[in-house]
Each structure stands twice: as C-alpha cells, then as structure tokens.
Amino acid sequence: MKQKLPQPNVETIALFPRNLRFITEWKFSDKQSRNIKIGLVSVSSLFLLLLIFLQAVTLWYNIHEQQALIQERAQLQNEAAYWEQIAKKYQGYRDVYYRIASIQYKLGNYNESQKYIKKALELDPNFPQGHVLGAQVGL
After folding, report:
1. Rounded to whole angstroms, how far apart are CA atoms 103 and 115?
2. How far apart are CA 21 and CA 133, in angstroms?
3. Distance CA 120, CA 94 (A)
C-alpha cells in the first residue's frame, strides 16, 4: 500500500535557499556599469575606425587602378592613331590593318576592329592571325 508523503509546512518552504535567483539579482555597481559602457563604446568606435581605414585603403587602390587604366587606354588610342596614319601612307599592307584591328579590339571598338580585320583578310585571305582575331571579333 502506498503512503502519502507528509505535506511541508509554510516555515520549511520559506527557509529553502533561493539559489536560482542569485544570478538575476546580482547588479553592477555604478562605477562598474560606467566602465563597461566606456569599454563597449571604445571597442565599437575602434571597430568603426578600422572599417573606415579599410575603406580608405580600398578607395586609394581603386583610384590608382583607374588612373593606370586611363593611361593605358590613352596609350592605345595614340598607338591606333599612329597606325592609322601609317595605313594611309602605305595602303595594302595587311599587318598594319591587323595591328589597328587588334588595338581597336583591346579598346572595345568591335565595329572598327571588324572593319580593319576585313581589310586585312581582303589583302591576304590565308592570314591565320587575322582569322583568329576575326573569330574573336565576330566575323
């Protein structure tokens, strides 16, 4: 036969230790909370400054890359103008037209490149490099 356990009285329940509430009742002192706030603000500020510095370095790198690309493009345009003058002077020279076509291809002027590669292939239909560039341009 089962026996019922005795019911605890009110005084026993009140004397039971409250160890579960120990963590939630603990508070920082005013000085400790102030130091914690200062520490968190300092760490977050340093993190933001680091991000700003990294963005500045990235921006500086991108500007230098852009300047290098602008210089390279200007050099290619000067070279194309030079070879166009040579083509006017020496008409019927396939390598000049091929050179102009390759420069225009590098500059992204695909229509101009097609025009000059057609001229080069008209002069020499068996020009293997002209066929390769023609395939890249879309002939």
Report:
1. 12
2. 80
3. 5
Under DSSP, the state recorded for 16 is S
Cα 114 from Cα 52, distance rounded (Å): 46
- Neighbour-count burial for 61-82, b at 16+ CB within 10 Å, e otherwise: eeeeeeeeeeeeeeeeeeebee
Strands (E), the chain: none
Give me the DSSP letters along 35-66: HHHHHHHHHHHHHHHHHHHHHHHHHHHHHHHH
8 Å CB contact between 101 and 113: yes
- Greatest Cα pair distance in the chain: 122
Put simply, whether the predicted model's pTM sits higher than 0.70 gets the answer no
69 and 82 Cβ atoms separated by less than 8 Å = no
- Residues 13-47: pLDDT tens digits? 555 555 555 555 567 788 888 999 999 999 999 99
3: left (phi over 0), alpha (psi -120 to 50) or beta: beta
Least confident of 8-12, 43-47, 64-68: 8-12
**C-beta neighbour count of 25 within 10 angstroms:** 7
